[in-house]
Task: inverse folding
């Protein structure tokens, strides 16, 4: 049995269906949960934590029924909320110790665990400062630390990179990946930034208006397309010259902005592209196999607005 299993999970409100017959399985490693705002991500997390009831269907977390074992689930799961919820006049150390005690750890064990997790998330030097003076990145790290303090078997991370600059986002993603690999904790992480999930997730679940659009290994989303992406330099019409030469050689080629896409026929396609580039006196800047991206699923499925980067 996976860390999370749902069968026909449905949540209806008077004017909207937040989840619609959702069948999802989440296993070990890092699972990305992606969808536009209103896709049902937060509703799903609340149901999994036993905070709100489902209208119909079933769900289990670590073998516990969400309808009856909410307290047991919350003792085994770490949760990092999306929004800022940290008390400004409390230090990260005191918060994480308190959350450890709330999860059942004795005081001394909670202090020891708090010290460890704050070091792991990069707050060792700042752990005694009031969190009201923290940067957004530090606040996100503090929220992550409190989710880990009781050594959970599963963590639910709701938009952990929300509000972060590119450098801080990269650091947070590295931490999330580390949790799912080196720490051996199953991770369900939500994001509306598709590129993030491609980088860190072993598996991706795509929701659209409360329905399951797709659930597969990340490698299935990002498999090769059988198309080469070629960039050349030279005269202003260098790409057009090469494109015409490729078509004249019997290959399918078409413009892609300032680059050219070439259909791969067999193992000689790359050689043909290289040789024609040389014959035309052009410089070959880049030739790489184009891969699908998770955003392609939204284009094909007509899902809501989700950002690719």
Result:
């Amino acid at each position: 049995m996976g860390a999370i299993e749902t069968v026909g999970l449905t949540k209806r409100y008077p004017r909207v269906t937040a989840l619609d017959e959702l069948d999802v399985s989440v296993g070990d490693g890092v699972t990305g949960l992606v969808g536009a705002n209103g896709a049902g991500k937060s509703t799903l997390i609340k149901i999994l934590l036993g905070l709100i009831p489902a209208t119909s269907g079933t769900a289990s977390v670590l073998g516990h029924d969400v309808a009856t074992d909410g307290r047991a689930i919350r003792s085994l799961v770490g949760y990092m909320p999306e929004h800022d919820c940290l008390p400004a006049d409390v230090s990260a150390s005191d918060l994480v110790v308190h959350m450890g005690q709330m999860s059942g750890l004795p005081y001394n064990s909670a202090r020891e665990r708090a010290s460890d997790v704050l070091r792991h998330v990069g707050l060792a030097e700042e752990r005694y400062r009031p969190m009201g003076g923290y940067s957004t990145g530090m606040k996100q790290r503090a929220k992550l630390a409190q989710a880990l303090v009781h050594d959970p078997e599963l963590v639910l991370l709701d938009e952990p990179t929300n509000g972060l600059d590119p450098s801080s986002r990269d650091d947070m993603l590295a931490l999330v990946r580390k949790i799912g690999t080196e720490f051996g904790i199953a991770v369900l992480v939500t994001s509306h930034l598709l590129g993030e999930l491609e980088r860190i997730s072993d598996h991706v679940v795509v929701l659209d208006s409360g329905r399951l659009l797709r659930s597969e290994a990340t490698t299935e989303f990002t498999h090769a397309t059988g198309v080469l992406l070629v960039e050349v330099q030279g005269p202003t019409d260098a790409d057009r010259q090469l494109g015409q030469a490729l078509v004249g050689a019997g290959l399918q080629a078409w413009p892609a902005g300032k680059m050219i896409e070439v259909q791969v026929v067999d193992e000689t396609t790359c050689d043909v592209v290289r040789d024609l580039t040389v014959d035309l006196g052009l410089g070959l800047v880049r030739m790489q196999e184009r891969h699908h991206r998770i955003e392609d699923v939204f284009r094909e499925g007509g899902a809501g607005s989700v950002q690719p980067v």
User: Anything to note?
Assistant: The radius of gyration is 24 Å. The longest strand covers residues 17-26. Residues 230 and 287 are 5 Å apart (CA to CA). The chain has eleven helices and 14 strands.
